[in-house]
């Protein structure tokens, strides 16, 4: 991130000290050239989905990569490798849409969200927000763009300063953008914000520890709304909450979207949450998108072996279907993003892997059906049954 103007209080106020350090410390531009020279740049160029062609696009991400250097050395630090946290992601989000990002822990979802907001400096690629390339913005234009893109964090307790009252938390963000003053208009705005997230005005004088988890997340959402954003990146917005409270917060996010015309990028490992809230879903594996489709299409007909395995692990409420449905058991752990497998990143765990091509050639994310993009050399053959699992023990029934 460009730190010329200091750390943006809006974007980093919810970060832990370590995250703030990351937000300021990563030098992506220099990395890019070196990595390109080493031939380690990202996935084959992906086509953007027809689902977004000609649509009113608010956010467009093209070949985005975020590679973190691994440094070693006691006296002189040397870069000995890179963590390929995000490695060539292209996607577009329509205005007013909810785009869900799913994948196992460590696959790069959070880093992608932070790269989009320039909380970490991308190594390569571009992020167009309302047509403006965020990477090229400096100082004042960047600050203006930042106002329009806000983040809601997973753990509201650690993202809210325990020493600040709710009023001070909310006013801080507004002040950074010249939206708060000592007039009654600010007080009116604060009351409106609390009412919008379902909290009483008395909450303004209280401190974060005086609230329940769900109420704290409402405060986190109110904080994001203080500056009238267009895009909210919500990173696991309900995963720290009790199941009974999750639905309330999801409903709140949906109500606010309908009322304020917000666009959401929702990051979650819980497929049920994403299915409920997202219009379209991107599935990530080891730093790349492996599949993208409407929520309905993805859940009804996943085409990438990884998505099939992820979805096959979700229990079905109908006991008859539950007893007979196919479950795909993935063997092995997620490989390290510092040392990703060659070819298709998923080939080491894929029950359908085919010799040579899967381990040598990285598949591009191609549109196989309208609005349905898949990065698998054999997705069509797998779907038709022309290719069966190599490792049959990976697929079990009931
Ligand atoms: N600042 C950093 N420096 C080095 N490596 C990092 C940094 N931030 C993230 N990583 C690594 O990048 C990879 C992707 O992490 P990321 O947090 O984006 O994944 P995730 O899918 O959001 O996982 P989770 O759901 O657990 O947060 C991980 O291997 C992580 O350890």
Task: Label this structure with key terms.
Oligopep_ABC_C; four-stranded antiparallel beta sheet; ATP binding; 14 strands; binds adenosine-5'-triphosphate; ATP hydrolysis activity; P-loop_NTPase; alpha/beta; 398 residues; ATP-binding; eight-stranded mixed beta sheet
What's a concise summary of this model?
The chain has 398 residues and is an alpha/beta fold.
Note the overall shape: globular
Cα-to-Cα separation, first versus last residue? 49 Å
What would you report as the Rg, rounded to the nearest angstrom?
A: 22 Å
Q: Strand percentage, roughly? A: 15-25%
Q: Order of strands across the biggest sheet? A: 6-7-8-3-9-10-13-12
Number of strands: 14
Instruction: Please provide the ordered H/E string of secondary-structure elements.
Output: HHHEEEHEEHEHHHHEHEHEEHHHEHEEHE
Low-confidence stretches: 1-41
Count of separate DSSP helical elements:
16
Q: What compounds are bound to the protein?
A: adenosine-5'-triphosphate
Mean pLDDT: 84
Largest sheet: 8 strands, mixed
Question: Percentage of helical residues?
Answer: 25-40%
Structural class: alpha/beta
Walkthrough of the structure:
GO terms for molecular function: ATP binding; ATP hydrolysis activity. With 398 residues, this protein is of the alpha/beta class. It is built from 16 helices and 14 strands. It has helices spanning 9-12, 17-25, 28-38, 109-116, 139-147, 156-159, 166-176, 184-196, 213-225, 243-260, 271-277, 295-300, 305-312, 319-324, 357-360, 379-384, and strands at 57-72, 78-94, 98-102, 124-129, 132-133, 149-152, 231-235, 263-267, 280-285, 288-294, 326-328, 366-369, 372-374, 395-397. The strands form 3 sheets. An 8-stranded mixed β-sheet has the order 6-7-8-3-9-10-13-12, with helices on both faces. A 4-stranded antiparallel β-sheet has the order 2-1-4-5. The N and C termini lie far apart (49 Å). The structure holds adenosine-5'-triphosphate (ATP). The site of adenosine-5'-triphosphate has 14 residues, from strand 2 and helix 4.
